[in-house]
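Narrative of accomplishments. A recurring question from our advisory board has been how the design workflow behaves on a single, concrete structure rather than in aggregate. To address it, we present the structure tokens for one chain from the evaluation set, followed by the sequence designed for it. No filtering or post-editing was applied between the two.
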């Protein structure tokens, strides 16, 4: 009896133990399944995270490259800016120098204009004074003009000289005295006496050709102005141009008569003119 009870109890115990083990197994299997699912999810998440990390690294690399490019561009821009500023400063200096040169040139031009205006005014006064002092008969043989700022007094040879000669005739004395007075009144002017002839050859004692004749005639006028009327010889110059400065054709008697002349040319002093030229602003 006791043996039966023991066997029964043992059997019951085994049955109960078997039931308990089966439940535990199912629970373990369910837990394992859950763990596998979690593991798969973790694996998937790891893969996604790894890909995101790689993409982030790529973006970081790209941003670093862009940053390096921007730094390089910024350095180039900075260099260009500094160069532009240097050029601007240099240009400002050059512009300043150019403005100074322009101002100097304008001042010089204004000075020249003032001098020319003054010279033109004096020339007009000189010309008017001379023409008013000459008689109607004298004006027929004396031509007074202002050309390019210079006063030209042209006298016909037949009123000044004896025919074919360089000696001053008596008829010319009064006219030369009036011209001498004008020359004396305008002491800031130099005077050039210039002889001219036609192309008719001349050959006389002590006169070889028209060159000689033109020079001798100019010299005669210079000496009369100096010795008879007191003109400072330092202001006087005598020159001859022979037949090589004609006013008209020598093919006619009228033309030859016009070419046989002596010109008294009144000009501003050459040394003063050269001083004025010397005042011109230098090119830099």
């Amino acid at each position: 009896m006791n043996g039966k009870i023991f066997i029964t109890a043992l059997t019951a115990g085994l049955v109960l133990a078997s039931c308990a083990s089966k439940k535990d197994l199912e629970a373990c299997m369910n837990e394992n399944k859950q763990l596998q699912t979690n593991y798969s999810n973790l694996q998937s998440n790891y893969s996604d995270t790894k890909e995101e990390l790689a993409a982030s690294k790529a973006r970081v690399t790209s941003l670093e490259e862009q940053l390096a490019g921007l730094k390089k561009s910024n350095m180039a821009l900075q260099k260009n800016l500094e160069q532009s500023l240097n050029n601007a400063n240099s240009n400002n200096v050059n512009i300043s120098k150019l403005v100074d040169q322009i101002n100097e040139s304008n001042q010089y031009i204004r000075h020249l204009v003032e001098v020319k205006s003054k010279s033109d005014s004096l020339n007009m006064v000189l010309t008017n004074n001379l023409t008013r002092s000459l008689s109607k008969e004298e004006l027929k043989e004396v031509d007074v003009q202002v050309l390019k700022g210079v006063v030209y007094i042209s006298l016909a040879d037949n009123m000044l000289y004896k025919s074919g000669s360089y000696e001053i005739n008596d008829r010319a004395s009064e006219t030369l005295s009036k011209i001498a007075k004008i020359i004396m009144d305008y002491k800031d002017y130099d005077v050039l006496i210039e002889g001219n002839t036609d192309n008719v050859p001349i050959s006389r004692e002590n006169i070889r050709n028209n060159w000689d004749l033109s020079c001798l005639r100019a010299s005669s006028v210079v000496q009369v102005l100096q010795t008879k009327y007191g003109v400072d010889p330092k202001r006087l110059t005598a020159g001859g141009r022979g037949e090589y400065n004609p006013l008209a054709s020598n093919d006619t008697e009228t033309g030859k008569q016009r070419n046989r002349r002596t010109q008294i040319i009144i000009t501003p002093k050459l040394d003063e003119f050269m001083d004025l030229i010397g005042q011109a602003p230098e090119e830099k």
